[in-house]
């Protein structure tokens, strides 16, 4: 399987509610930082007050990944806060700026408000849709395409690629990832858009080699865990990228 | 249906449909708004109705009307919203109407916060409304259990002709877990002929059903209250549910904890076991009726020296735990609220401190 996830400039992570956007954004940032890219992450989830990127800000910052968040005093507010630094980040993303949008078309609406900043930026912009086929409504090509259309309409931007995030949390097996990969291939054929990567829990990665997966695999170390579990330490492997 | 990955709020919504409930009235509030969001598109698929009320007060009476007509109906809200519904809930109890209320608790008092809390325990189990009214209160600890309890709640509400409450903390609504549903579970109230105000056309009996909670004759009202009391006593005899964890062998302390808090406690119990300290745990699955006998018995075990009630509140369930233990062992409370959840490490520390202080008294 290809080893590297080829992204740079601005990468917007979208997807339906609960597809795993935030966990993907966090782990993508860690993966790319370990590969030598300088990564910044902006939490644009203005919709849901639970399980947001900001909960992983300390481990990410410890790895040198810069976070663009509302001020500390407003982090827990149940308010849609879009900080002006996001526009600056879009104008000048450096190696890689990952924008973690909120769920569904509702969460992607914020991107339309940033249209002016995107227009002024010369950096390449990718909008990647995260899909977990084990979530309601995205278990079929039609479901994923319907969500894509809704997100594109709300954000006034085109989705440019897919990220296959097939999992059932602690109950995930290699079989789930194989089934997810099959759906993603059907989605690629239907949409003509590339599959940027698939994901798997870091602990499952050794077993993935047996699958014939023709795309990069992103190792996921789960950060947004309930209080009776511990986040998996974010120890990036040495990368040759 | 194969397993899917769902948020607790989504699973609660789907479970209600599987239970044959096609009527949902609600007003949005964090952290449970996903129930309404899910039912917005899902209910029309099954010819159901979702109507957003102008407030929680209105919603409670929309529930009253639908329940009185003999259809399965439910609502979901969070702490401040439930407070607004409390008058209507008392009316439902008084009129002996079945309905399901889901409270995904957030921090209080007042507007409080939007993160998980268990600070509505006393409200749900003892003070849900004016008058001598009680709810059957169920407390799920996982997404799967939340779905199962919702499906159990409808027939229970009809069995007792009384509202049933699912009391979950914010985490139950917001976290995702794999969940599966039975394929077909649809049903209607089987006993509605005797009470529903649904017209005379299809009724076997020729007497009219009257939906009311007003009884001006004191003798009649007293008799009504005695009947209600008999129902609540029957709930205590027939509906207690709880889970035992690590209580087979000897243990030095007993933890009582419910909802997602109990899962943090289980992690602490497992960590303590590794350190050579055995702690038993009882998790009430129903909060009213409360598993008094089970807790009393578990606390009385010779090896057990102390009982700890761990809650995301400032000490509410601990009153029921004390009542269950009846002075046989010292009972302590430990908790946090407002969105802070006690960690396994904190619970371990409290268990150790409690055991040390108990030892020094001997």
Automatic annotation (TrEMBL), chain A:
What Gene3D superfamilies is this protein classified in?
P-loop containing nucleotide triphosphate hydrolases (3.40.50.300)
Name the chain's protein. Answer: Cobalamin biosynthesis protein CbiA
InterPro entries, A to Z? P-loop_NTPase
Q: According to the entry, what is the taxonomic lineage of the organism?
A: Bacteria, Pseudomonadati, Thermodesulfobacteriota, Desulfobacteria, Desulfobacterales
Q: Which domain of life is it from?
A: Bacteria
TrEMBL record, chain B:
What GO molecular functions are on record for this protein? oxidoreductase activity
Q: Which Gene3D superfamilies match?
A: 3.40.50.920, 3.40.50.970
**Domain of life of the organism encoding this protein:** Bacteria
DNA damage as UniProt keyword: no
Q: Which Pfam families match?
A: PFOR_II (PF17147), POR_N (PF01855)
The Pyruvate flavodoxin/ferredoxin oxidoreductase pyrimidine binding domain sits at 14-241
Keywords in alphabetical order, please: Oxidoreductase
Family matches, as InterPro entries: 2-oxoacid_oxidoreductase, PFOR_II, Pyrv_Fd/Flavodoxin_OxRdtase_N, THDP-binding, Transketo_C/PFOR_II
> Residue limits of the Pyruvate:ferredoxin oxidoreductase core domain?
253-347
| Matches recorded under PANTHER family | SUBUNIT OF PYRUVATE:FLAVODOXIN OXIDOREDUCTASE, SUBUNIT OF PYRUVATE:FLAVODOXIN OXIDOREDUCTASE-RELATED
Under what name is this protein listed?
3-methyl-2-oxobutanoate dehydrogenase subunit VorB
């Amino acid at each position: 399987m290809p080893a590297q996830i080829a992204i740079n400039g601005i990468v917007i992570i979208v997807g339906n509610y609960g597809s795993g956007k935030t966990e993907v954004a966090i782990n993508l940032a860690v993966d790319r930082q370990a590969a030598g890219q300088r990564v910044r992450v902006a939490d644009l989830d203005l919709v849901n007050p639970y399980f947001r990127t900001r909960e992983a800000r300390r481990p990410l910052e410890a790895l040198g990944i810069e976070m663009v968040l509302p001020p500390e005093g407003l982090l827990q507010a149940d308010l849609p806060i879009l900080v002006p630094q996001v526009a600056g980040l879009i104008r000048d993303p450096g190696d890689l700026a990952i924008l973690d949008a909120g769920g569904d078309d509702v969460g992607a609406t914020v991107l339309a408000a940033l249209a002016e900043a995107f227009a002024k930026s010369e950096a390449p912009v990718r909008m990647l849709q995260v899909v977990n086929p084990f979530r309601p409504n995205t278990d079929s090509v039609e479901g994923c395409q319907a969500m894509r259309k809704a997100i594109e309409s709300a954000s006034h931007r085109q989705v440019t690629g897919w990220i296959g995030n097939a999992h059932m949390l602690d109950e995930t097996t290699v079989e789930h990832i194989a089934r997810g990969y099959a759906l993603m291939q059907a989605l690629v054929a239907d949409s003509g858009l590339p599959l940027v990567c698939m994901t798997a829990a870091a602990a499952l990665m050794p077993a993935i080699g047996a699958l014939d997966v023709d795309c990069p695999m992103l190792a996921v170390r789960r950060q947004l865990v309930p209080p009776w579990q511990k986040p998996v330490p974010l120890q990036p492997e040495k990368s040759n990228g | 249906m194969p397993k899917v990955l769902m948020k607790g709020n989504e699973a609660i919504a789907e479970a209600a449909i599987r239970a044959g409930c096609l009527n949902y009235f609600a007003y949005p509030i964090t952290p449970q708004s996903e129930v309404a969001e899910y039912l917005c598109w899902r209910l029309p698929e099954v010819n159901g109705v979702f109507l957003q009320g102008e407030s929680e007060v209105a919603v409670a009476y929309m529930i009253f009307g639908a329940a009185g007509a003999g259809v399965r109906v439910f609502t979901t809200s969070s702490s401040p919203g439930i407070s607004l519904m409390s008058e209507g809930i008392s009316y439902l109890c008084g009129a002996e109407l079945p309905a399901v209320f889901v409270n995904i608790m957030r921090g209080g008092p007042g507007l409080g916060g939007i993160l998980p809390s268990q600070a509505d325990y006393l409200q749900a189990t003892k003070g849900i409304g004016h008058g001598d009214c009680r709810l059957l209160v169920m407390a799920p600890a996982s997404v799967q259990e939340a779905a199962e309890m919702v499906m159990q709640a409808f027939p229970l509400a009809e069995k007792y002709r009384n509202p049933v409450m699912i009391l979950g903390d914010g985490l139950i609504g917001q976290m995702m877990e794999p969940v599966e549903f039975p394929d077909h579970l649809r049903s209607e109230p089987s006993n509605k002929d005797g009470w529903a105000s649904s017209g005379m056309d299809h009724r076997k009996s020729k007497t009219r059903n009257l939906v009311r909670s007003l009884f001006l004759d004191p003798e009649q009202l007293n008799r009504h209250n005695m009947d209600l009391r008999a129902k609540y006593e029957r709930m205590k005899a027939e509906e207690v549910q709880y889970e035992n964890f690590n209580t087979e062998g000897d243990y030095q302390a007993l933890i009582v904890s419910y909802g997602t808090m109990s899962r943090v406690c289980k992690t602490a119990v497992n960590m303590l076991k590794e350190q050579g300290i055995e702690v038993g745990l009882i998790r009430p699955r129903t909060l009213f009726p409360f598993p008094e006998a089970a807790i009393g018995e578990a606390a009385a075990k010779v090896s057990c020296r102390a009982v700890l009630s761990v809650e995301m509140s400032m000490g509410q369930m601990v009153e029921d735990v004390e009542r269950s233990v009846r002075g046989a062992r010292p009972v302590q409370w430990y908790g946090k609220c407002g969105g802070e959840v006690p960690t396994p490490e904190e619970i371990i520390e409290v268990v150790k401190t409690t055991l040390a202080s108990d030892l020094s008294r001997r």
